[in-house]
Write a structure and sequence with these properties.
Elements (H helix, E strand, L loop, with lengths): L2 E2 L5 E4 L2 E7 L12 E5 L5 H26 L33 H12 L5 H18 L9 H13 L4 H22 L26 H14 L2 H12 L3 H5 L19 H11 L28 H8 L5 H15 L8 H7 L21
Antiparallel strand pairs: 1-2, 2-3, 3-4
Helix pairs in contact: 2-3, 2-5, 3-4, 3-5, 6-7, 11-12
Length: 370
Amino acid sequence: MAEYKTAPHSFVKNGVYYFSRRVPKDLQHHYTSQKISYSLRTRSAAVASSRAIQAAQKLDEYWYHLRVKDSDLPGKHMLRMAQNANSAPGANVLAIPSTETLKLSAAVAVYLRLKGQGRPVTFHRAAERSCGYVIDVCGDREITAYTKADANAFRDDLIKRGLAGSSITRVFGTVRSVINFAASEIGIDLTNPFGRVYYDRKAGVEDRVPLPLDAIRTVQAECRKFDDDLRWLVALVSDTGMRLAEAAGLLKGDLKLDDPTRYKSTNWSSYNTALKQRGSLSIWFDPEMVWTPPPTGKCGRQCQFSDAAIQTCVLFGMLLRQTTGFVQSLLQLVGLRSAVPDFSTLCRRQKTLNVSLPISGRYRPAQPLD
């Protein structure tokens, strides 16, 4: 909870002093908020008081210029525009001479006020933090007063802080953007000293190795054991690849299971092997299967083929003559010299089998294997 102290225009939150001041009503149309508040980056009351007084003086001066610009100047319509030497004779161009410049802290305020609208809070924090690093190292100067030596000192301080090369790149990019934008707003040309600063961009940067699939499966199994909201959140992120913020903001109504589920293959080697296996045709003949039945001891001619042999032939669902040729080829491939029942025997014997065989249409393609 915020606690107000004796330092002017400041309050303390979690031991850190913050500057706070309300924008005057006649100038609120220049701001996106009615209150200016930011961290003074100190825990000392004396330092906070000094910085708060300086910030208040700068605001008073800046607000004075805003009021002057907004005021109705007598005879303003009679002012002549300065003529450009390179323009055609008699042509008037708009040339507003300005010797004003901005300090880095004011440049950040302008940058966030104009470009920070509608941006997330992380955008504002990144700009304030990056430029705050510069102010801590080089001081809060006018943007035209920074030199290459200041940029190099800033780089050395970031390296001393232990920042990785990618983080230093982001910080320098933010500082360059703030300075370039502020210079463009006040109409000055400058060479940004924070550009083309050398440092090892790969220092401390490691390639992110994806988690093994076995580790993800183990984590998901543990999540199912606990069966609570946090574990299901982890399981959802690991299974879908969603960002944590996206998954945490889901509602029950956001989940729609009406659409067909799409699966993303990750084990391509096993997937390809399974597809090839679908076209593989393997037929096994049990060598112990009774192809010719034993004598029954009854009068009359004995059956030449057992019920198992007849059932094996008719299971392929082919026409009877085609079945005879197909089974004969299979027996030759496996090296068996058993006789094959002809089509008339198959037609007569299949009526007396003690199994129910599915009746398929004559012209429907047969599917002997699943």
